[in-house]
Structure formats: C-alpha cells, structure tokens
Amino acid sequence: MKLKKDELLWLIIFITPTIALFFLFFLLPILFLFVTSFTNWNGISAEFVGLENYAKLFSKKTFIRSITNNLYWCITAAFVTVPLGLIIALLLAHKSRGWKVFRTILFIPQVVSSAAIALMWLALFNAEYGLVNSLLDLLGFSEYKNHNWLGNIRTANMALIGFSLCYVGYFMVIMLAKTTGISQEYYDAANIDGASQFQKDVHITAPLIKSTFFLCIILAVIFNLRQFEYVFLMTAGGPANKTSVLVVYIWNELSVQRLGRGNAAGVIMIAIGAFLLIVLRKLLKSETYN
Amino acid sequence: MIKSIFKLFTVAFISLSLTVISAVASAEITINWPSIWVGKDSKTTVIRELVDEFNAANSGAIKVVIEEQTDYDIYGNKLTAQIATGSLPDVFTVGADLLDILSKSGKAMDLAPHVASDSHWNNVYPENALQSNMTDGQLITLPYELFVTPVTYNKKLLKAAGYDEFPDNYDDFFKMCEAVTATGKVCTSQMTGKNGWTSMLWFSQALASAGGPNIYENGLDDPAFVKAFEVMEKMYKYTTSDAIGADAGVSGGHFLNERTAVFMNGPWFIARYTTDGIEGLHANIGVAAAPMLKGGKGAPGGYVGGKQSSLAAGKQSDPEKEKAVVKFLKWLTTPENVARLSYSSGAMFIVKADLPSDMDRLFTEMNEGKGNAPYVVEIFQNAIGSLAVSKEFPQALSALALGEVTPEEAVEMLKDAD
Asked: Which of A67, A195, A224, B260 could form a disulfide with B254 if both were Cys (CB 3.0 to 4.6 A apart)?
C-alpha cells in the first residue's frame, strides 16, 4: 500500500517519539554496554582491554555455574511451572464450585511484593524455627529437624526453584483466559458423542489453547533468564556461590566496581537470551504464531 | 472541549508557578542525609534528636532530611553506585572499604580548607587524627566512629558448662565449646549471609593471632590465612544450624535469646543487650580478648577493630549549601553530642568527648581492653584492600563450612576473586 505524502508525514510524527525513546533507553544503553565490555571501566576510569573480560569470565567457575543455574530455572519453568499452570487452568475451566476462589489464591503471589514473599519463605525454610522443618518432623522425617534448606549445597537450588512454583498462577490465568474464548459448540458436539470431561480437556481444550501454552513457555524462559530478586534476597548466590544466577553474578561484579567485566557478563546474557528466543521461536513457530 | 483543555492548562500553569515561587521564596537549604543509623540501630534515637535540634536551631534556613537506610549492605551498594555516577548525597557516612574509590572519584567535598579556617575540628579531634586521613592535601572524610570487637560471652551459659573464665587459647576454647554443646546450648553465633560480618570478625581475630599485627603486609600468600580458615572450619562445628546464609540479625538474635554462648560484634551492639536481649542478659555478659593460636605471631590480649564510619559530604557548587553542610558536620562532631551518642548506644568515637562516669560496664571493659591491648589490628574486610575479596569471603567461608573446600582452597577462592 502506497502512502500519501500527508499520511507519511503523520506516520513519521507518530512514530518518531517511540523510535527516539527506543534508541535512547534501549539501543544506546546496549551499545554502551557492548563498548564498555571491552574496557576495565571501574566507574571512574576505563582502558581498552580487548577480550580480557570475556576470557576471565569463562575461566570463572561461578560464572559458568550461574549460566547453568539460569538454564535450570528456565527448564523448570518450561517443563514444570507452565505445564502445572496448564493442568490447573484445565481444572478451573470446568468452573466447578469455588473456582474463582482458587484462581484468586493462586494469583495472589503476583500482586504481593517479591521481597515480602522472599522474606516469608526465608522464615519458612529457616533451619532453627522454620515451618517446613517442623512439618517434616511432625510427618516423621526427623532427620530434617534442623536441615538448612537454603544453606545446604544439595538442597539450596532445589528449595529456591521449588519456591518459584508458587508463581504458577500467572501462567494459569493466561491459559484460563484463553479457554473462555473456545466455542461451546465443540463441547456440545463432544457431549453428543458421549465424551468424558477428561477427553474433552485433552482433545478439545488443550489443543485449542496450545498456542497460548507455548507463548507461556517463551515468557517463562525470558522471566527466568533474568531471575534476580529471589536468589538475591534468599541466598545472594550462596552457599559457596552454588545458587548464583547471571544477574546476581553481574550485580556482584558491579558492586565491586568491575563495571567493564559486569557489562561483558551482560553482553553474554543478552546473547544467551537471543539464542534461546531464536531456538524457541523456531521450535514453536507454527504453534505460537499461526 | 477546547475551553476545558484551556482551563486545565491554566490551572496546571498557575499551580506550577506557585510551587516554583514558594520554593524560591523559602530559600531554605535542604541537606539530604541517607543515614544507616535508623531503625533498630542503637544510635537511632540520639541521631534523630540531634537532627531535630539542628533543624529547630536553623529553622527556615537549613533543614536536614534523613533518608532511612535500613540495610548496611544495600546502603554500601547504593553509595558505590553514587560514587561511580558522581551523584553523592549532601552528607553521608562511609566505611573504610569505600574510602579508596571515594578518594579517586574526586566527587567528595574537600574539608581541609574548613579544618584550616576553623579551630573547631582541631579542638575536637585527637592530634594527627585528621592528618592521617588526608590524601594529597585533601581531607574528604572526618573519622567518626571507631570500634574494637572483643569476645562477648554469656557467663551464665559458660558456668553451666563448667567454665568461670573465658579460655585464652583456641585448644581450650574448642574444649569449652564441647562442654557448652553438652548442656544443650550452642557455642558460637556465626553467619555467612551478606558480608558474613560476625564470622568475618572471628576470622580477623584468628588472622591477627596467627600472623601478628602486620598480617596484611604479605597479602593472601601469608600462611596465617590458611590457619585462620582452619579455626573457622572448627568454629562452624559449634554453631547454629542456620549459620550458613544467616545475616547479622539471625546471628545476633541467637545470642540475645541465649541460644548461643559466645558472640562477637562491636560496641554499638551493647545497647541491644538490654533493649532486645532476654531478661537479665546484660548482667550475664562478659568481655574478653579473643583466644590465641598456639605458635601464632599474635600477642595475648590483642584486639581487632578500626574505623567504622567516617563522615563525608558530596561536593557542592553552591557556597551557601557548602557552609550549611559544614555547619551540620560540626554539629555532629561537638564533644557534647558525641558523648550523648556514645552514652546511649555504647558506640566509640574518635572525637574527644567527656564521657559520663556511669557509662555502660561493657563499654568500659571494652575501652579498657582496647587501652591495654598490645595492638589493635584492622578487620579483614577493611584491611584486605579489595572489595572483590571481601565480598567473596562469605562464599569461601560457606564452602569451607560445608566441606566443599579445604582451608587452602578457601584462600584460593579469595585470591581468585581479585
């Protein structure tokens, strides 16, 4: 479609602010990040150091562990949190008695401050007086009486990632909303054929919300790649750097004035994010966008 | 429609104009102070009183506004970012670990001309206290709070374990810990959360005991670092199950609740033994020098400590505001006000102040211990000279305590962080 002269003018007028803001607050900082990643910038002075920052990063065990931990977070979100959200959405879509109450309860973590939730879980996981250990003790698992979930190398990551499951409500709500758009005619036809509720869920609802399910997977991977606040507030990457994730690693570099190296880690994070997105889009393309 | 929009713009314009006019007309200078002496900090009450009194005395001319900073680590990170971006607050406190970058930034106010032109500073500070803080002829910080960190222990819990005196060497200390454990109590309060503060103090004591007062001259290659980690490895066998990942609140809380028998922190914690401790706790607390390592280069009675917080100010372009900031700094450093702060909190200050004769018993014991100490060695976090190393310390310590690394490997973790 060819635009008229005045239409083109209006198009430019309307689009310029957005492009300017995008350039100023997104492209320019990324360019700055990229350039400074080749320097030893400490906030006060900077010298060009070539690829030294990148070489150092890949020689650090904690950095490699941070990347793998991020991948664990992403995998858990894609294969546990989102599918769990789908199951709950399918159950709530029946609109059985009290479904709205459950929907609200599951969505509550989204509207509560993440710092408050992290502090609450810190108290629940506390080795000396935490509710988790008391419950396990009551159930007969006395070996966990004083278990330090977040302070033990074997359980710290598990406890952190397990805690993230309380955010299942976010994906559940997205998928539940999609189910409301499914035509009743499909279910009426299935009823005539004598289909059970389970069969209707599996053969009608699930396939029709597949695109939203895949969208949720993409969102979950993006969210978990930039995971920060829960790890920072609950373990700060400890014990022994075992729960560190990329953003916590970057934070630590920045807080010791190694801004150049921190920015190099940021560039790597962007590259990983872009790679994951490309792969996911390729894998899920036909389902998500058609 | 157009009329409504016009009315809206007119109202907005008048409101904005009035705001600007009132701001210009008032001409009150506002001094922003992000203070860590808020919340549960033992200096909170008197600091608030001092600010209120200053504001009342300078009503309409100067107003100090406290911006509450309840988390020391987050404050440190914020200040680091502000130093890097050159957006320093008007007045702030700074720890020894950030002095170097603050000095290099060139963003802090040089107080040397004010010290030279006003006898106040030279009268209230001990001889050479200000000179030792000068770099290249500039004075960017006023030394303020200082500290020592002897051992504080619960005499009642130790007595129950069969000990009337605090052991003077680590062999006896760990035997005592066995005895305390047998009574159902926990021997020491430790922590690896945040900067690992209370454990870092123990580590500093063990370092000074193993390597002597000049321990930091040889850097991390000194074998004393391995010996100090060996002490910490044992120490974590006699601590609470939540020590890994615990912060100072948890670590101190166990001692305040008589769950643990031995604790290490600075004199600012003294007031909390009464305000937050279990009933009668303060009367049961004893003060002792840290145990010594047999064969170490340290001397019995040696203390660790150092400068805790120094006062500083951001560079000002407005000479009137600079004068106001200096006036407030002078207010904070008058001997009377420092005595009030010290009396209420138990904290120690460099400023010469006539302290009341009824100062807290624990303060007096710590002060006497400091006076009798053969040396006072700077704590590890301040002396090691690398933010990255001091930040890695709690991670290395937790790895050591969990059996992931040996003491030698823990030192390697510190070296690798730099």
From this structure: B260
- Flag whether pLDDT at A113 surpasses 60: yes
In this structure, the number of other CB atoms found within 10 A of the CB of residue A48 comes to 11
pLDDT in tens, B345-389: 888 999 988 888 899 999 999 999 999 999 999 999 999 989 899
Is the Cβ of B302 closer than 8 Å to some Cβ of chain A? no
For chain A, which residues lie within 8 Å of any Cβ of chain B, measuring from their own Cβ?
42-44, 60, 126-128, 146-148, 150-153, 235-241, 252, 254-259
Whether B278 and B255 have beta carbons less than 8 Å apart is answered as no
Half-sphere exposure of A1 (CA within 13 A, CB side): 4
Domain count, chain B: 2
Q: Which pLDDT band, with edges at 50, 70 and 90, does A290 fall under?
A: very low
Indicate yes or no: pTM above 0.90.
no
Q: What is the CATH number of the domain that holds B369?
A: 3.40.190.10
Cα–Cα distance list, B24 to A163, B28, B63, B317 (Å): 52, 9, 15, 17
* Torsion sign (Cα): B367, B369, B375, B381: negative
β-sheet bridge partners, residue B287: B152
Helix-, strand-, coil-residue percentages of chain B, each rounded to 5:
55, 15, 30
- For residue B4, being part of any structural domain is answered with no
DSSP readout, B72-92?
HHHHHHHHHHHHHHT---SEE
